[in-house]
Each structure stands twice: as structure tokens, then as C-alpha cells.
Amino acid sequence: MKKTNAARILDRAKIEYEIIDYDVDPIELGAERVAEKTGQHIQFIFKTLVLTGDKTGTTVACIPGASELDLKAFATLSGNKKCAMVPVKNIQELTGYIRGGCSPLGMKKDYPIFMDMSALKLDYILISAGIRGKQLKLNPHDLLKVSGAATGAIATLKSQTK
Description:
By secondary structure, the protein is of the alpha+beta class. It has helices at 5-12, 31-38, 71-78, 88-95, 140-147, and strands at residues 18-21, 46-53, 57-64, 67-69, 83-85, 113-116, 125-128, 134-138, 150-152, 155-157. 25% of the residues lie in helices and 28% in strands. It is globular.
């Protein structure tokens, strides 16, 4: 099996992980579908979002799949006054990844990464391996260590935001 850049980064750091393969639904790439296809509860699926800040430029957020990013909290944590999602058409140019296969590890550049602190309450999380159809299952503390991510309360449950 060919390893992704994200998996090779974990190998170099001697971090334990598992690659979980799943059938991709090209129509529905959301975290809920990934949870269904991998047989995992949605709380363990973390999605990677790419943003731009008015002071820092490109930044990355890792949040639970059933949540939405709190843009104000993210801006504050990342040292910005305002942040906005990067348009989907620009994600590949910035990161080297496509929507539905964007990993916080192995991007074209080392962007600042911010992870919702809820991950630290879990024994493991799943993040994209950098390609659609592959997830990396790892300890969230190990992800922090290898990525240099900062943590904070940057996500709210979707039902709480409506």
C-alpha cells in the first residue's frame, strides 16, 4: 500500500497510527458520511478546514465532524481580527490536497494549525490521510506533538448554532 505524505510524517516521528480505508461517496464528502463509511462515531472524525486570516494569512483548523467552526473564537486563537474560509477552488493550490482529502499534515507549506480542544478528551481521532478514501486513526496528543498545533474552543455543535 502506498503511503501518503501525512503517513510518512507520522512514520518519521515514530507515532503509532492506523490507516482506515473506506469507499468514497463523491457526492457526499462530509464528515457524517466518513463516519458512516468507516464505522466510527462522528465524534471521532475530525475535519480539516483551511482559512485565511487578516493578520496571519493561511491557517488550518481541525474540528469535530459534527461541529461548525466558531469564526470569532478561531480568529482570536489564531491572532486575527477576522478569518474566512478559503474558497474550495483555492484549497489544492494552497495545500496540495483536494476537498475531502485535506490532511492537517503534509501540506505544501507549514501553516499554523489549531485544533478544537475537545479532541484531547478522546483516546483517538480520525483525520484525513491526505487522499479521499483514507483516514488516519491516531492519538490526538500525538497529532499535537507532530503538527505543533495549538488548541482552543473553536467549534460548536451544529445544532447549537441554528
